[in-house]
Amino acid sequence: MLTTIRKQLRHHPALIPLFIFIGGGAAMSMAYLARLGLRNPDVCWDRKNNPEPWNKLGPTDQYKFYTVNMDYSKLKKDRPDF
After folding, report:
1. Confidence band (pLDDT; 50, 70, 90) for 33?
2. pTM score, two decimals?
């Protein structure tokens, strides 16, 4: 299969940017899915040691990838620390 792709790319070099952008998009989407699976507090991989990881987040912890007009350092703590 890779030899067929190689032959097609040699005969049609205009397809090279298409493969680059599709490969880059696939790599970025896999990286974002990995980040969601590893860094999101809603995902729990270890149910024995930490069954509810979202309870350990404070009000100033930033876990979202992008938040519009939000400065987490200026928030007041609503709940006491345990």
Report:
1. very high
2. 0.57
C-alpha neighbours within 13 Å on the C-beta side of residue 39: 11
Residue 32 lies in a domain: yes
Residue 82 domain flag: no
Rounded distance, CA 25 to CA 19, Å? 10
Rounded Cα distance, 80 and 12, in Å: 64
Which sign does the torsion angle of CA 49, 44, 29, 67 carry? negative
Tokens of 16: 């090279």
CA distances from 64 to 33, 68, 74 (A): 13, 10, 16
Number of domains comprising the chain: 1
CA separation for the pair 10, 15 (Å, rounded): 9
SS3 call for 63:
coil
Alpha-helix residue ranges (DSSP H) falling in the chain:
2-11, 16-39
